[in-house]
Structure formats: C-alpha cells, structure tokens
C-alpha cells in the first residue's frame, strides 16, 4: 500500500457537483510523510504533513485532523481530502466522497482512524512548492527561584509569546517551541509567500529584540534560515523535529487546544501564563527526587486552523481546531519498565490539570492526548460525537473496528480493553459475548 500518484486534473467519481480539482495526490494507506515529500518534491509540490516524517499521513493523521506547519496557511489534513477508497466492515469496496456515501466520507475526515472503514487510498489537495523560512532560537537562563511560578523570565517569555501569537498565526506563521525550567527552544516557520524570510523577520523582530535584550538570557542560537523546498527544511531540522517523534521510550501526552479567547486581553494572557507556570511547578515538585531520567517536556505547537474555517461543516474534526492558536502538550517520557514510570505520568497529568484551569473550552487532539481522558467523547470530538457514533453504528454495527476511546468504544466492560480498568475481564474467544 505504498502507491503514490499525482493528478493535475481530478474529478471525484460520480460527483459532478464537486467540480474539477487541480493538483490532487493519491497515496496508499502505507505512505509516510517522508515518502510523500520525496515523491512530490520531484514534481515541485508541497504536502500538508506533520512534524514527524515517519508518520503515515493517510491513517490516524489524515483521518483525525492532521496538523502541521502548513496548517495556518492551508488547513488541516482532513481539509485537503477529496475522496477515499475504503473497504467497510461488510466487505464492500467503496469510493467515497461528498456525493457517494457522504456521511461516511464526513466521518473519516476527522473522526479518527481505524473506526469506520479500512482505508485503501487517500486522495487530497497538494500545493505548488515554495521556499520555507525558519527562525531558530536556543537559550538558557539561570533560574534563581526554586518555585517556577515565580520565575521572572518564564513569565515574561510566555507573556510576550502569547502577545505575539495572534498576529503570527493570522499571517500564516507556524512553529514548534519547547520550554523548560532552564531553557527555551524555538522554531518559527514561514512556509508560503514570495518573500518568506523577509516576512518572518518582520513578524518576529519585536520578539527577537525582547529575547536579545533580556538580562541574563544566554542565547546560544539565533538564526534565520531559508530553504528552497519543504523537504530541504525537514532534512535540515531533523535533529530538532525528531524529539516530537521519539521512539524507544514510553510516552504520555496529556494536551489541550488553546483557543483564541485566551489571548484576547492582558488578564486572560496572565491567567494562561499563570496556569502554564503552575503546571511546570507541579512537574518540578513531583519529579524533584527522580533519579531515573524521567522527564516532562512542554511543547507549544503553533499549528491551529484559525485561518481556514469549516463553514460548510465538511469535516468531522473537532471544531475547536478552527479557534486554536496553540496545541499545548505536557509530554512525559520514561524508559520502558522503569520503576518511576507512574510518577512521570502523574507529573504530566498534574501539569495538565493546572493548564486546564483557565480554559473556557476543553479540547484535545485525539492522536496526542491522554488515553485516560475522562470526558473523552467531548474533549476529543467536540459536538460531533453523537453524529459520528450514529455513522459508526450504520457502517459497523458489530463493532468489528474497535480501539480504545475511539468512536464506538464500548468502555471498560469490553473484554478487549478491560485490562486497562480496575476490573479486568479474563480473555475469551472471539466473537466476544
């Protein structure tokens, strides 16, 4: 399922109302981001991939929303979808689009992978290549305060970053930032426009001045960079981006989508920053005596879809994405089997509890979230869950496609997943009673 092709002109099957589309990619379900970039760069095309080049873009990524550095400019991956080839649980091969089985097509454009049908081919919009500009900053600081809620630099840094974010996002800038008790790492990106480097420098000049003039901040990297292609950018930034696709360790990623209302006034920004710092302090306290190397990273992913409203409700992605400026993750990592793994997980969850406090909307990206999220139907799917469940029951009435806290999840009583509960049910042969 590694097939890749390109159609300069495409018409969805039996769907004249969709019109003729230009520049459509067709990929098999097994194609990952790197393979797609390798293929389409030769054709002077950009693809709306995520931050990790090894992730398959047609599966959970392309069916659960799919955010990346091109999202502020072009929207989520599900926004690009024009047609799917699928096999439904009844064994029928179907070509689905906005005219053929439109309810199933809608559900698979945001309702999560592995829930409604087996995807064979993903057909989606791609874009002419463009130069990519990046601004990389690495800096450390001496934190004289043990209590991170009293860290002057972290409060000032997060406040200034929050002040800048609405303008950056409105102008199609994206980025992946991290913050810790002793340092910051920034990657701000401008992937479109005739002068991406000039635009990025102009957008970030004030914030750059804030950093370079901040007393005691030790800046080790402060570079503006220009790349000819998307693929060249990803290759050059591989060392930094690889931390967002870590392998070989156990991870837990409690997260929240931080919406535009949290950036509207100084008071709301202060509440957001205070909650962020409290989350960092919770982690410091819980892991203060850890000697195993467990950690919690705070990731600020600036990949919201505020510039591409879903005005016709064409996708089933959590609607909160359309008002999101930050996808904020408290990412815990520990070695498999490590005795203090539970402590690292508890630290990340404690951080999220603090971060949630000022948020008027509780939402999370289901691919990068806590699998034990209690209010998962609403947090993962927003107001779409009931409609998604009805579609699930229509096409998969026997719940052949079943995954934990996906649409149609049967709960802890399901023998397949009861091992995660406090009352596991012994394994029994399929079909389950």
Automatic annotation (TrEMBL):
Cofactor: FAD
GO molecular function, one term: FAD binding
Origin: domain of life: Eukaryota
Coiled coil: none
Residue ranges annotated for the FAD-binding PCMH-type domain, each copy included: 1-129
PROSITE patterns: FAD_PCMH
Keywords recorded for this protein, A-Z: FAD, Flavoprotein, Oxidoreductase
Stored InterPro entries: BBE, FAD-bd_PCMH, FAD-bd_PCMH-like_sf, FAD-bd_PCMH_sub2, FAD-linked_Oxidoreductase, Oxid_FAD_bind_N
PANTHER family linked to this entry: BINDING OXIDOREDUCTASE, PUTATIVE (AFU_ORTHOLOGUE AFUA_1G17690)-RELATED, FAD-BINDING PCMH-TYPE DOMAIN-CONTAINING PROTEIN
Family classification: Belongs to the oxygen-dependent FAD-linked oxidoreductase family.
Protein name: FAD-linked oxidoreductase CHGG_01242-2
């Amino acid at each position: 399922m590694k097939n890749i092709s390109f159609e300069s002109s495409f018409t969805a099957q039996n769907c004249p109302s969709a019109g003729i589309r230009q520049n459509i990619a067709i990929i098999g379900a097994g194609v990952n981001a790197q393979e797609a970039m390798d293929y389409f760069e030769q054709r002077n095309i950009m693809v709306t991939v995520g931050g990790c080049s090894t992730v398959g873009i047609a599966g959970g990524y392309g069916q659960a929303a799919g955010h990346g550095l091109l999202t502020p400019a072009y929207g989520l991956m599900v926004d690009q979808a024009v047609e799917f080839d699928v096999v439904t649980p009844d064994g029928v091969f179907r070509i689905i689009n906005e005219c053929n089985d439109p309810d199933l097509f809608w559900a698979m454009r945001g309702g999560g992978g592995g829930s409604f049908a087996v995807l064979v081919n993903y057909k989606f919009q791609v874009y002419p290549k463009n130069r990519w500009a990046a601004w990389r900053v690495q800096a450390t600081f001496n934190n004289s305060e043990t209590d991170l809620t009293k860290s002057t630099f972290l409060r000032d840094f997060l406040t200034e970053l929050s002040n800048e974010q609405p303008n950056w996002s409105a102008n199609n800038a994206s980025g992946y930032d991290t913050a810790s008790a002793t340092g910051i790492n920034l990657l701000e990106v401008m992937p479109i426009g005739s002068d991406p480097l000039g635009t990025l420098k102009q957008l970030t000049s004030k914030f750059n001045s804030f950093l370079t003039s901040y007393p005691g901040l030790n800046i080790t990297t402060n570079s503006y960079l220009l790349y000819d292609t998307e693929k060249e950018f990803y290759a050059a930034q591989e060392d930094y981006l690889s931390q967002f696709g870590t392998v070989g360790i156990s991870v837990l990623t409690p997260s929240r989508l931080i919406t535009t209302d949290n950036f509207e006034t100084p008071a709301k920004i202060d509440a957001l920053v205070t909650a962020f710092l409290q989350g960092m302090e919770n982690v410091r306290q819980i892991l203060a005596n850890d000697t195993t190397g467990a950690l919690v990273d705070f990731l600020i992913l600036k990949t919201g879809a505020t510039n591409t409203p879903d005005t016709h409700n064409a996708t089933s992605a959590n609607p909160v994405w359309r008002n999101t400026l930050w996808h904020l993750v408290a990412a815990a990592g520990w070695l498999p089997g490590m005795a203090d793994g539970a402590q690292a997980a508890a630290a990340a969850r404690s951080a999220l509890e603090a971060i949630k406090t000022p948020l008027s909307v509780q939402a999370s990206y289901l691919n990068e979230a806590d699998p034990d999220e209690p209010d998962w139907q609403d947090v993962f799917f927003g107001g779409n869950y009931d409609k998604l469940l009805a579609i699930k029951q229509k096409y998969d009435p026997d719940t052949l496609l079943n995954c934990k806290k996906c649409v149609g999840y049967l709960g802890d009583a399901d023998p397949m997943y009861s091992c995660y509960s406090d009352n596991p049910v012994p394994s029994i042969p399929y079909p389950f009673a």
